[in-house]
Amino acid sequence: MAKTSKNIRNICLLGHSGSGKTTFAETMLFEAGAIPRKGTIEGKNTVSDFTNIEKDRGNSVFSTLMHAHWKDSKINIIDTPGLDDFIGEVVSSLKVADTGVILINASQGVEVSTELVWEYVDQFSTPAMFVINQMDHEKADYDSALEQMKSRFGNKVLPIQYPINQGEGFNKIVDALRMTMYVFPDGGGKPEKQDIPESEMPRAQELHNLLVEAAAENEEGLMEKFFENGTLNEEDLATGLTIALANQQIYPVFICSSERNMGSGRIMGFINDIAPSPVDRSATKLAEGDDLAVDSSGPKSLFIYKSMSEPQVGMVSYFKVFSGTLNSGEDLINQQNQNTERFNQIFVSNGKIRSNVDSLLAGDLGATVKLKNSQTNHSLSEKGKTIIVEPITFPLDKIRVAVRPPGKNEMEKLMKALNQIADEDPTLKVEQSATLKQTLLHGQGQLHLDLIKYRIEKVNGITMEYDRPKIAYRETITAKADESYRHKKQSGGSGQFAEVHLRIEPYYEGMADPADLTVRNSEVEFLPWGGKLVFLWCIVGGSIDAKYSNAIKKGIMNKMEEGPLTGSNCQNIRVSIYDGKMHSVDSNDMAFMLAATQAFKSAFQQARPQLMEPIYDVSILCSDEVMGDIMSDLQSRRAIIQGIEAEGHYQKIKAKVPLAEMYKYSSTLRSLSQGRAKFSRIFSEYVSVTPDLQKTLVQNASMEVVES
Ligand SMILES: Nc1nc2c(ncn2[C@@H]2O[C@H](COP(=O)(O)OP(=O)(O)OP(=O)(O)O)[C@@H](O)[C@H]2O)c(=O)[nH]1
Ligand SMILES: [Mg+2]
User: Fold this and answer.
1) Which long-range contacts (CB under 8 A, 24 or more apart) does 306-311 make?
2) Which are the contacts of 261, defined by CB distance < 8 A and separation ≥ 6?
3) Nearest protein CA to atom 22 of ligand 1, as residue
4) How large is the greatest C-alpha to C-alpha distance in the chain, in angstroms?
5) To 10 degrees, the CA torsion angle through 330, 333, 335, 337?
6) Looking at residue 166, what DSSP letter applies?
7) Domain 8-280, what fold?
């Protein structure tokens, strides 16, 4: 257990897939003595990638909480996945981390996911440091990686270390903060400290001076000392660097070979000495706009940043104690639903291995099991205190897929399992679309959805197939049309009679009342699927009693819900009811409803109907060499390119793309770019489809009706 909140460090490992985060975490745990043997990705035995899917894939899929003790600190380490399908895990981890440790692959430099995590680090104002990993790689290129980092992330990127012999023979690190050279034995581990060679002194000294200046710059007292003495003593240097790091004034750079176990000890030393503790961060933002100080004697308050069910265990809730001290056996009140939850057991964890602890101080991370009504993003606090930590905003979904319904019995089980996964994973949305008559999953990418299928099949034992999702088209009209319909039925004694005369027109904001009709009553319906129906009652002389107006409107709404062209929702139409006939005995609501539906339907067909399709704003970040392929693929998807901007070493393409052309886009993009491109999308608008496409879609829809 941490001695005080000041002794806690919460770090989160970030970076492109394959940069070596999981291996780095393993090395830190091993160096700190938290594990007796160092596992490897290839050996499928790392602490962090403990789930079967991670072992199968050789990639992290979930964020994993680990911890190690180094000197005075308890360092909580959250390893995150680098594949952007699992970006939700990064976002939730950043909510509770106090320092982001961004790994750079020495042979690759800044990669697309490095940019992506940087955007989040920047957005959350998380202090961050870099580790250039894989210095032993034959193609390791420190200078080029550093140059890319500086040009992309700015001059606050300050190297603390550089290699003497990068590549296969790598074993020497010059440390410009300690002004020492570390020389590692063959198997890595504890290095020998040596003097920096004479030839390297000018470079090391120059870097050292930059660090001293950066440390002095952010605190007035230190600035004065610096001017007086021309330097800072070790203690002042550490204080100044902590302030600079905590305020995102510097982004220090370390180097390492996780595989050979060279350099992680010194990085933990820096985290112990310099990285901000939870107390050094600015106070936590509460949902109401107030601040909450990290104080272990303050009111008890914690926040669940992640929930994950485990076989035989059930739901494990991972949380940060934002204030107060949590003791096992205590009750807290869920602030979202007011339920009382008992924390019978609290744990610290190293992957799947959990150990019981008696208490956790403000700032610490831990886990518990068997909470009854609490999920990710919920705050819990002691009785009588209303403390709601600002919830995590998860990224919008990027792709969707339909679930092919299994047998009737299975469907219920499947929905239950899917909803349970969605409870754990806020980046998955399950939608039962009445309009499309499909169950849709919305997620972050093909891999994300493949993982859901894997879990459903392996864990829940339900076979699951994906289908192409339907598109929610919209129908409207582009011309005016008048139509009438008489509904008449004679069966036995009483009959049914109604006659409706109506006019339909394309509706637009601010349009004038029809000049040739007398509007008695005007109603505006805001349609649940967007757009409007404006309903004008223009009956003069009592040809239809006003009591039938609701039934007539209902008849029109029914057809607007399942439009005449393709069965899609209709929108932005004005209907004027101006004449008709009724019968004193045979007329009723049902008759008028049916007559209105038919009149509307035939008027619609004559009013030059137009089908509209959803268009998304798509933004793609990619490297130069894959841009050409991505652009020509976009053109084949009826995309309209809006612009291309340089963003660091990358290009950002902005385009408007029909949703119908986005099916499986995440897999296409991944293979087109070999993983060197990311995309996001957001709904933009409905746009008319071309006459040719309309013809095809109407034909397809009529065939579907015949088939079903
Ligand atoms: N040569 C060399 N290989 C390394 C080093 N660190 C990691 N690797 C290898 O790089 C590969 C990817 O390592 P991981 O630790 O899984 O990378 P990651 O960043 O966790 O990847 P994701 O979980 O997919 O985000 C593995 O084969 C590691 O053995 C290193 O320092 N040197
Ligand atoms: Mg990993």
Assistant:
1) 306/63, 306/89, 306/92, 306/93, 306/376, 307/375, 307/376, 307/423, 307/424, 308/62, 308/424, 309/420, 309/424, 310/352, 311/459
2) 27, 30, 31, 38, 187, 188, 189
3) 17
4) 114
5) 130
6) -
7) Rossmann fold (3.40.50)
Q: Which amino acid appears at position 291 of this protein?
A: D
Q: Does domain 612-693 have CATH number 3.40.50.10490?
A: no
In this structure, are residues 106 and 137 in contact, taking their beta carbons and an 8 Å threshold? yes
Same-fold call for 399-467 versus 612-693: yes
* pLDDT tens column, 324-372: 999 999 999 999 999 999 999 999 999 999 999 999 999 999 999 999 9
**Across 182-191, 227-236, 300-309, least confident range:** 227-236
Q: What is the DSSP string of 167-228?
A: STT--EEEETTTTEEEE--TT-SSPEEEPPPGGGHHHHHHHHHHHHHHHHHT-HHHHHHHHH
Top pLDDT among 167 and 705 is at 167
pLDDT of 707 reads 46
CATH of domain 475-607: 3.30.230.10
- Cβ–Cβ < 8 Å for 519, 511: no
Instruction: Compute, in angstroms, the gap from residue 559 CA to the centroid of ligand 1.
Output: 58
- Per CATH, the number for 399-467 is 3.30.70.870
Comparing C-alpha atoms, which of 631, 157, 95, 47 is closest to residue 393? 95
Q: Rounded mean pLDDT of 681-685?
A: 94
Cα-flanking dihedrals φ and ψ of residue 437, to 5°? 55, 45
Smallest Cα–Cα separation from 237: which of 209, 266, 279, 263?
A: 209
Of all ligands present, the nearest one to the C-alpha of 132 is 1
CA angle 409, 399, 656 (to 5 degrees): 145
Helix (H) / strand (E) containing 360 = strand 359-360
pLDDT value for 283: 77
- The domains of the chain are located at 8-280, 291-381, 399-467, 475-607, 612-693
Q: Which two tokens stand for residue 536?
A: 């004008």
Q: Quickly count: other Cβ atoms within 10 Å of residue 173's Cβ.
A: 26
Is any atom of ligand 1 closer than 6 Å to the C-beta of 22? yes
Question: Does ligand 1 have an atom closer than 6 angstroms to the CB of 17?
Answer: yes
Q: What is the pTM of this model?
A: 0.88
| Ligand 1 pocket test target in 116, 259, 267, 670 with most atoms within 8 Å of CB | 259
CB of 81 within 6 A of ligand 1: the answer is: yes
* Mean of the per-residue pLDDT values of the chain: 93
Q: Which residue of 83, 111, 258 sits with most ligand 1 atoms within 8 Å of its CB, as the best mutation to test the pocket?
A: 258
Could you tell me if the CB of 597 is within 6 A of ligand 1?
no
585 Cβ contact list (under 8 Å, min separation 6): 494, 495
In angstroms, what is the span from residue 508 Cα to ligand 1's centroid?
58
Is there a contact between 605 and 482 (Cβ–Cβ < 8 Å)? no
Average pLDDT estimate for 611-635? 94
Ligand 1 pocket residue status of 134, Cβ below 6 Å: yes
Class of the 291-381 domain? mainly beta
Three-state DSSP class for residue 87 = helix
| Cβ of 137 less than 6 Å from ligand 1 | yes
